């Protein structure tokens, strides 16, 4: 037995050997990091991995922001970003973190070149995030193109394609329903490498409860929205696109934009804000409207200020630095996108036009089927002022209400201007006193304007009559 034990090395010998090996490894690792360039290191590692894994056949899916047609937004890309945020853990040594003012918690995302391993029904799936620089022909840089790459054993191709990706989409939908943050989309050129929409979180606090609008009109709008949402099968049965058009018209400051925000919050719909001045041609408009998601509100504000839609035959000349060329954007294309064949490329969409001057619009924009409901946003009424007073001061009754009611009935004032007066003090007596003084000033100004207008009219009639007399 003793002879057998002598065959084993002593503890001192084992420790000396371990120390020698450790020192050699540290020296080798240091030399490897300092002498061999990083790109060559990555190449060697990839070849090493390939050598030991070449017995397997791998498949790769690429998910980028554009859909398969290159026109719309890829829903799977956005779903992947949300899905992977739930898979990030201690194994991921390098991640992107951030937090907006509205967010409660810090958000996480996979960093450039980062990997996440996921398991689905026993299948190992590796995700990698890439950011690829792009260059334009005119040497001006584009934003980098981002995309995800998923790799897996090719024998599971069908299950990954037909089940796993659906699992990613369903997980994303569940996350959004749990805590959905509405988005406001605006037009931004060359976003994600092409022209499209730029989303920002939408946190407007407007609601129908706080909206300073006549109660009867408010109820009719809510009833119309509810009826629209419940009639999907009706639209299908009668052969119409499932959409609804609203025209909000009236003087500035009457709450048109606030009403849109209240509609979005009530329906839980995202908003797409389309500035027609940014549209260069009919094709541009079609492509842009095709990327709008379902259950959303498309708004075109101050359409009376867009000269392009006053005349269906109008064209636009666009001049650029290096070349001159003619582009056209016609009202006919806009009408076709909101009411023609192109309008059927989506569901549960609401289109809202706003204008301060309804009378200058082309009648083709106003007919039923395009703008189904015309909502007149008038000057402030007595009932609407009651809502404002409760919102700002928390009161239902006050001794000055009777005087204020009489002034409002005989004065044209917007809810926005009265809201400004209510913000001047938290004391109801002081704030409502400011409202009374403001209404009296506005009433005098309007009476003076009427009086001056009457004087000018009388003078014109005298001049006209004198001319007729001289001619006689």
From TrEMBL:
GO terms (BP aspect): response to stress
Occurrences of domain AAA+ ATPase (ranges): 242-381
InterPro entries for the chain: AAA+_ATPase, AAA_N_dom, At3g28540-like_C, ATPase_AAA_core, ATPase_AAA_CS, Mitochondrial_chaperone_BCS1, P-loop_NTPase
Pfam family, one: AAA_assoc
Domain of life: Eukaryota
GO molecular function, one term: ATP binding
Coiled coil feature spans: none
Entry keywords, A to Z: ATP-binding, Hydrolase, Magnesium, Nucleotide-binding
Catalytic activity from the UniProt record: ATP + H2O = ADP + phosphate + H(+)
Cofactor(s) the record lists: Mg(2+)
PANTHER family, per database record: BCS1 AAA-TYPE ATPASE
Stated family: Belongs to the AAA ATPase family. BCS1 subfamily.
Protein name as annotated: AAA+ ATPase domain-containing protein
């Amino acid at each position: 037995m003793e002879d057998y034990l002598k065959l084993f090395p002593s503890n001192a010998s084992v420790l000396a050997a371990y120390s020698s090996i450790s020192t050699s490894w540290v020296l080798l690792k240091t030399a490897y990091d300092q002498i061999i360039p990083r790109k060559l290191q990555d190449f060697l590692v990839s070849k090493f991995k390939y050598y030991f894994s070449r017995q397997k056949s791998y498949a790769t899916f690429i998910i980028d922001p554009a859909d398969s047609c290159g026109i719309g937004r890829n829903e799977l890309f956005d779903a992947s970003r949300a899905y992977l945020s739930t898979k990030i853990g201690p194994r991921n040594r390098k991640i992107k973190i951030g937090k907006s003012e509205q967010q409660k918690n810090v958000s996480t995302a996979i960093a450039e070149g980062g990997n996440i391993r996921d398991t689905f029904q026993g299948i190992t799936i590796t995700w990698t995030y890439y950011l690829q620089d792009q260059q334009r022909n005119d040497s001006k840089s584009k934003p980098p193109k981002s995309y995800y790459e998923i790799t897996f054993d090719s024998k599971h191709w069908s299950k990954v394609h037909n089940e796993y990706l659906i699992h990613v989409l369903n997980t994303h939908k569940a996350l959004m329903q749990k805590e959905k943050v509405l988005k406001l989309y605006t037009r931004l050129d060359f976003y994600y490498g092409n022209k499209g929409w730029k989303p920002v979180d939408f946190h407007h606090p407007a609601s129908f409860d706080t909206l300073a609008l006549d109660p009867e009109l408010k109820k009719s709008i809510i009833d119309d929205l509810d009826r629209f949402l419940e009639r999907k099968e009706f639209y299908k049965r009668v052969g119409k696109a499932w959409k609804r058009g609203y025209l909000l018209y009236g003087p500035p400051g009457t709450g048109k934009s606030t009403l849109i925000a209240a509609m979005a919050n009530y329906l839980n719909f995202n908003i797409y804000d389309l500035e027609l001045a940014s549209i260069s041609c009919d094709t541009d408009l079609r492509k842009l409207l095709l990327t709008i998601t379902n259950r959303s509100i498309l708004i075109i504000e101050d359409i009376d200020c867009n000269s392009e839609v006053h005349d269906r035959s109008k064209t636009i000349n666009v001049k650029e630095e290096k070349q001159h060329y003619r582009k056209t954007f016609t009202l006919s294309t806009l009408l076709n996108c909101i009411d023609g064949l192109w309008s059927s490329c989506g569901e549960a969409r609401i289109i809202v036009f706003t204008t301060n001057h309804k009378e200058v619009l082309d009648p083709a924009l106003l007919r039923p089927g395009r703008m189904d409901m015309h909502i007149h946003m008038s000057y402030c009424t007595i009932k609407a002022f009651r809502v404002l007073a409760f919102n700002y001061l928390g009161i239902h009754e006050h001794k000055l209400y009777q005087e204020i009611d009489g002034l409002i009935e005989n004065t044209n004032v917007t809810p926005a201007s009265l809201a400004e007066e209510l913000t001047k003090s938290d004391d109801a007596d002081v704030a409502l006193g400011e409202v009374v003084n403001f209404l009296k000033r506005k009433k005098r100004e309007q009476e003076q304007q009427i009086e001056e207008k009457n004087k000018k009219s009388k003078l014109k009639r005298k001049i006209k009559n004198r001319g007729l007399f001289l001619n006689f």
